[in-house]
Design a protein that fits this description.
The complex is a heterodimer. Chain A is mainly α. Chain A is 70% helix and 3% strand. Classes of the chains: A mainly alpha, B mainly alpha.
């Protein structure tokens, strides 16, 4: 009897999440056990945890599993509904279950050397990051609003601490507090939206919501419904750093340790996009005109503002922060193009385009942040001017940085970035939003201006040592290239080299064979 | 996987794949050489010489393969609008409907051979002459990557593949101008170049995606065969407008030409030769290959605008040349004028006009390539291209260089018997008799304007010759710096093919017309019928 009332839990479906969570615990235990001088090896345990989650996800490929299911019944509003599950592993979930641990693995490898140099506590760092990863993996499989929100919180909560992990750093503490306050406010707003939806329909499961809204069109007409949708969207808009929910991003990225900024820009943003796709197409498909138009406006605002403000940045991490705001805009374009299209085909195209762009962008962005992390030791404060002359000291690093920045700009020889742009423009035009495509085109050009500035900086001659602090040192740098006597070549820690190298290979392969990612992104619901 | 067409006897691999793979592999190899840790190899060292000769070897091999593509490209089979030879068609990105579909026909093969030839001559020229900061391996890696992009554009038969190749050339050219151009002015010119041409490129992408959204296919052969059937008039207009502006930036069409003078002036010699010789052709080739066959209704609507802007470019370019003090800038503006003739030929939408345009492309590539080489030679010797500083009498100080200059300028102004004449003459002839739907009075006015432009062209070239080459040796820069003032052996090797080809094509234009005429008539079938 009790057995019939207990929910069956499919451990296999939850395997990636469980491995990530267990990995987090293992990191804490190892941190206690390892001797003080070898403490930083605990991040290797964390990396193993991420790799384990990836392996568990790969084992699930091709399967379709659900867990935490509720039996069929009827809703208070009088609609019959079938069996619904809170956590489902399908093509959509698997895409993130494979992508996110791989990227987190890259971030953890970047962190190995950085935490040692910056004296960050490695045990706490690894634990927080793996906990956050577990939340991200749960988010991808969440199929009801409450699970989604809990997963979102699990993804975000550890990152508050990660951002402020640098002790005795005013910038770090300020960034952490800002992030906490804005994030909590956004969650509160989203919760209100979820509560309103529950009040309207009596359910939080996505499939039941769709059924309820389809069976009761009068619910759709209520202004309360549109307000609820808008409130839920606002929370996710904050997560992906779309304008006007973006203003926390530059300060937080700059105040956080660089690998944490990389994590926020890749895994955290991917989680936000996953949530957005689930909420818009999974739950609120009936409100397409409402959120389509809203997301189109958000997309245009993010692209334009992000690119324009990035033009004025003088610090590399801040520049990448504003660039990620702009890319949030590009990510929202396929969904925004749905505003004028009611077909089911269009929804599939939008999902493929968004996921394809996300995967390509996340890999390239990881590489870009990786190069900035690698250069962080040589460049005081990550100032863009400090990158001058880097090519003479480390041609590989300078070439890699240029490669990734050109990818973010969407230019060959980084074909992956180019394919991403093609995907987005194609999605915009297939949805009938030609004007959106033109806006993307113009923004691509604006974006190139600042990516080029950072990419070309390593190839310019550094100012003379005495005039290093003088802004007028630029006139000494009119010559191009040439190593200055006495400048040491940059030595990269092995873990950093592996991470950046892996990102390089992945970007190159995805550029030449984008079908690998786009095929996986073509999800039949 | 790849059908072995074209009679290449080596293991059944298609010739065209080899054509594209050679410069890419060469570029990768040279890139690895360049990224070796440690200080860059000084001039004259083993690594530096290896890099230069490797570049020449790859360029020679690519040129050989390009020549192998020539036989077999003739008139299309009956009923086919585009009939490519040496075709390769495999799926690339199935999720986006993009295929790796490449092939050559009479329209593209002259440009393919021109590209391979100019790259070879640039590699030979680099054997002896490389501007500071040296770094031959990086330089040649970028040049070969550029070549791969240019060749890719001319052989692509899939719209997105065309766009990818179209964009590949931007980053290498940016680095060539910014790093080897020297100075802050070169960096500014490079940024202007890449931002402007990127805008053109992404507008081309928007046009391509518009066509795809309506037609459902990206295949150029298929789309040309349909000739706009199934595409609504509004869609055709919108797509053609986007493609028009995009290709206009590249061509360049007045008034979107302002990136050109700075980029040409600040680029190193090799950069200017490739920029003028090949990159400009990508825009006009795009119009002929992509815009005209696929969107006929759009073309009919916007052809008059194209014609007007083309003649404006001829006149403005020529008038600007009259007041130039810098020889490189003068030749850059002359490019605007010449491409104006090419665009006028396209605007007439007739076989005569498009044949003239394709001929003019090849002729401009040869002649302006030669002129930029010559000015580069002058700049190497006297460290300036400023006409006032150089003074007159080059023919007395360095006779061979001076008389080569005369040859180049006279060919460029369109003297009959040399390559420049046929493109201009037939463009004017086509303007006299444009396609039936176009306004004859308008094109008669355009004809008059273009003819006036030829007069101004003659004027500024003769002025250049009088100021620089002829007359007694004078001027403060009269003392040559470094080495023999007259033409060196490596320069003879690099420049002679251009001189000989200019003569050959000028005396026997059928060398080009025989290749282009059949395919052009098939391509424009929908306009003539």
């Amino acid at each position: 009897m009790i057995g019939a009332q207990l929910q069956a839990v499919d451990a296999a479906a939850l395997a990636p999440v469980l491995v990530a969570a267990l990995g987090a615990v293992a990191v804490l235990v190892c941190d206690l056990v390892l001797p003080l001088d070898r403490r930083h090896a605990v991040l290797l345990v964390a990396a193993a945890g991420a790799a384990g989650a990836l392996v568990a996800a790969l084992a699930l490929v091709g399967q379709r599993r659900s867990t935490f299911c509720t039996p069929p019944g009827s809703l208070p509003i009088g609609v019959q509904v079938g069996r619904s599950c809170s956590y489902t592993v399908d093509g959509f979930t698997l895409f993130f279950l494979v992508l996110l641990p791989a990227v987190a693995l890259g971030v953890l490898l970047l962190s190995l050397a950085y935490t040692r140099d910056a004296a960050l506590p490695p045990g706490e760092y690894g634990f927080l990051m793996l906990s956050s990863l577990a939340g991200a993996l749960t988010l991808a499989g969440a199929r009801d609003l409450v699970t989604l929100l809990v997963a979102l919180e699990t993804l975000t909560l550890p990152t508050y601490a990660l951002v402020g992990l640098r002790r005795r750093s005013r910038l770090g503490a300020e960034a952490a507090v800002k992030y906490l306050l804005v994030s909590v406010a956004a969650t509160a707003v989203t919760l209100l939206g979820v509560a309103l939806v529950y009040g309207l329909t009596g359910t939080v499961y996505f499939d039941r919501l769709t059924a309820a809204l389809a069976a009761r069109p009068d619910l759709r007409e209520l202004p309360l419904a549109a307000a609820a949708v808008a409130l839920v969207l606002a929370g996710f808009g904050f997560k992906v750093a779309a304008v006007p929910f973006h203003w926390w991003a530059p300060d937080v990225y700059q105040g956080a340790p660089v690998p944490v900024a990389a994590y926020l820009a890749t895994v955290s943003k991917a989680g936000g996009i996953a949530g957005l796709l689930l909420v818009t197409l999974g739950a609120f498909g009936a409100f397409r005109p409402v959120w389509g138009a809203a997301l189109a406006v958000l997309a245009v605002a993010s692209m334009t503002l992000g690119n324009l403000v990035a033009l004025r940045q003088r610090q590399a991490v801040r520049l990448l922060a504003w660039s990620s705001v702009a890319h949030a805009g590009y990510l929202l374009v396929p969904l925004g193009a749905l505003a004028t299209d009611a077909g089911a085909d269009a929804a599939r195209t939008a999902v493929t385009a968004t996921l394809g762009y996300l995967a390509l962008y996340v890999v390239i962005n990881l590489g870009a942040f990786g190069c900035v992390t690698a250069a962080a030791r040589q460049v005081p404060g990550n100032a863009i001017e400090g990158y001058r002359g880097l090519a003479a000291r480390s041609p590989l690093l300078a070439a890699a940085l240029a490669f990734f920045l050109l990818g973010l700009a969407g230019l060959p020889p980084t074909l992956a970035g180019l394919v991403a742009k093609v995907v987005v423009v194609r999605a915009a035009l297939l949805g009938g939003a030609g004007w959106l495509a033109v806006v993307v085109a113009i923004n691509t050009v604006i974006g190139l201006a600042y990516y080029l500035r950072l990419a070309a900086m390593p190839f310019l001659a550094p100012p003379a040592p005495l005039a290093a602090k003088d802004a007028a040192g630029a006139e000494h740098a009119d010559r191009v290239g040439g190593a200055q006597a006495g400048r040491e070549p940059v030595r990269l820690a092995p873990s950093l080299a592996v991470a950046v190298g892996a990102a390089l290979v992945a970007t190159f392969v995805l550029g030449v064979v984008p079908q690998l990612v786009l095929g996986a992104a073509t999800i039949t619901p | 996987m790849c059908p072995a067409t074209g009679g290449f006897p080596f293991r059944g691999v298609a010739v065209i794949v080899v054509l594209l793979a050679l410069p890419l592999l060469g570029s990768a190899l040279l890139g690895l050489l360049a990224l070796r840790p440690g200080p860059p190899a000084p001039e004259g060292s083993g690594a530096d010489r290896l890099a230069r000769w490797l570049g020449v070897a790859v360029a020679v091999a690519t040129f050989g393969v390009a020549l192998a593509l020539l036989p077999g490209t003739g008139a299309p089979s009956a009923g086919r609008v585009v009939d490519p030879r040496h075709e390769v068609d495999v799926s690339w990105v199935a999720a986006l409907d993009v295929r790796f579909h490449v092939g050559v026909d009479g329209v593209s093969v002259p440009l393919v051979v021109l590209t391979a030839l100019l790259t070879l001559l640039c590699a030979v020229y680099t054997l002896r002459s490389l501007p500071p900061p040296g770094r031959a391996a990086t330089f040649l890696a970028l040049v070969l990557l550029l070549e791969a992009g240019m060749l890719g554009t001319f052989v692509s038969l899939d719209l997105v593949l065309f766009f990818v190749a179209f964009e590949i050339v931007l980053a290498p050219m940016y680095f060539l101008v910014a790093v080897w151009g020297g100075g802050a002015a070169a960096r500014r010119a490079a940024v202007k170049f890449i931002l402007y041409t990127l805008l053109g490129s992404v507008l081309v992408l928007v046009g391509i995606a518009t066509v795809y959204a309506s037609a459902g296919t990206l295949d150029l052969v298929e789309l040309s065969q349909r000739a706009g059937a199934g595409l609504a008039r509004g869609t055709q207009l919108a797509a053609f407008a986007a493609l028009f502006v995009g290709f206009a930036v590249k061509s360049p069409l007045w008034p979107l030409h302002t990136w050109l003078p700075d980029a040409h002036t600040e680029a190193p010699t090799v950069g200017s030769v490739l920029l003028a010789g090949v990159l400009l052709k990508m825009g006009t080739y795009g119009l002929v290959r992509v815009a005209l066959p696929v969107l006929p209704e759009g073309a009919h609507e916007l052809a008059p605008a194209l014609g007007v802007l083309a003649v404006a470019g001829i006149l403005v370019g020529s008038l600007c040349c009259l007041v130039q003090r810098d020889a490189k800038r003068l030749i850059a503006y002359s490019s605007v004028g010449h491409m104006g003739f090419v665009l006028l030929g396209i605007a007439t939408l007739t076989p005569v006009g498009v044949n003239a345009a394709l001929f003019g492309n090849v002729a401009h590539g040869l002649i302006t390539g030669l002129l930029f080489f010559l000015v580069g030679g002058v700049k190497d010797r006297y460290h300036t291209a400023d006409l006032d500083t150089l003074g007159s009498g080059l023919a007395e100080r360095a006779p061979r260089l001076g008389w080569l200059f005369v040859f180049g300028c006279v060919a460029s102004l369109g003297l009959p018997g040399l390559a420049g004449f046929w493109g201009e003459a037939f463009a004017l002839l086509a303007a006299y008799r444009p396609a039936p739907e176009l306004s004859r009075p308008l094109f008669a006015v355009l004809l008059a304007g273009a003819a006036a432009g030829t007069a101004v062209t003659t004027a500024y070239f003769l002025r250049l010759l009088r100021r620089l080459v002829l007359g007694p040796p004078a001027g403060t820069g009269a003392v040559s710096v470094g080495g023999a003032p007259d033409v060196r052996r490596v320069e003879v090797l690099a420049w002679a093919p251009l001189v000989l080809l200019t003569l050959a094509v000028g005396v026997y234009p059928r060398l080009v017309f025989d290749l282009t005429d059949g395919p052009v008539r098939a391509l424009l079938g929908v306009y003539v019928a």
